[in-house]
Write a structure and sequence with these properties.
351 residues, 20% helix, single chain, alpha+beta
Length: 351
Amino acid sequence: MPDYQLVPYAIKFHLKGHPTDPKDVSDLDGRGTTAASLVARSFYPYLNIPHRGKDVDGKSFVVERIRRRADTIVMVEAAAGVNGVAARIVKMNEGKRQDPYLVAEQDWTETPLRSVFVFMPGRKVGLLLTERVSSAGVLARITEVLKQSIQANKGDLMVKVEPVMTAEAMKAWAKDAQIKSIVIQHTNSVTGESTRRLGDLPYGTVIELKAPRSRTWTWGMLGEPENLTKQQVLTTIVPALPGVTADEAETVTQQLLEDGWEVKLGLDKQNRRRRMSVESKTGITITFPIHLHKGVSRHPTEYEFQVAARKAMKELREDGLDFGPEHMCDWSLEECWTDKDPWKAVWGVSE
């Protein structure tokens, strides 16, 4: 069953040259311009109008839905896509494989996912909750479009999106947590997307190892979270990767380190799931599960997504990260709207 999650990020707006002085989200410029209005304006030009990256760089973006509640909530459902990889899709009918559908290099593979922006009036920090499924997400494209749009239309205003928890706080939390999974991936420093594969080994751009259902891994296997290094983790897990022989393990480990692959640990503590990046200054994130009805494998409904978003806000507040009361996270009766004179698209070119 797909693993749908919510990942929280703090979002701040500041004037160019003043990154430590975030502006009030309900009045960014002293003239009543709100953060919600800028977010809506940034994504509205892409509503039902697919765009691809300039210079045919293998990326696409389209907004399929926008909901906005006054100046507190903006919900964006968007699909970020890639092309350039030949593949096939095999449909199943009553457990039997059907003729595959071939995906050519020029075809786009897109996954529609939701992002909700929460802005509590009077605060200087907003909350961005992005939906992920397994290792696929839209954060990189969402932040790329948002930053380019604001820079093009509000040249003196900058936006910063960062994990809600610091590395030190995450490591302190991790001490008593159980290790449920280990993920290694290579992320493009500009786009935030995973694009590189591990040589000719039978893996995709993201390699995830999960602990057996009946047990968890211990910190004693890897080292303590305060001083954990990527080399410690990779030295432990690479020899266990299918396709890697004992003679190749050291070479593969060094290749991963030299090429800058990331290492992340999936942690669980009192039924709270978080992900910790090893030796990363900004890659510390908390993840919240989006619960589906038992036995069902599908994209979460809007109701299930909203329930997860509210639960995430409640849990964050209990951890001392207060972005507002969870009941404000409601866009169910709102229509898609933006302010007058919407901005033009600046990311990519329309198809």
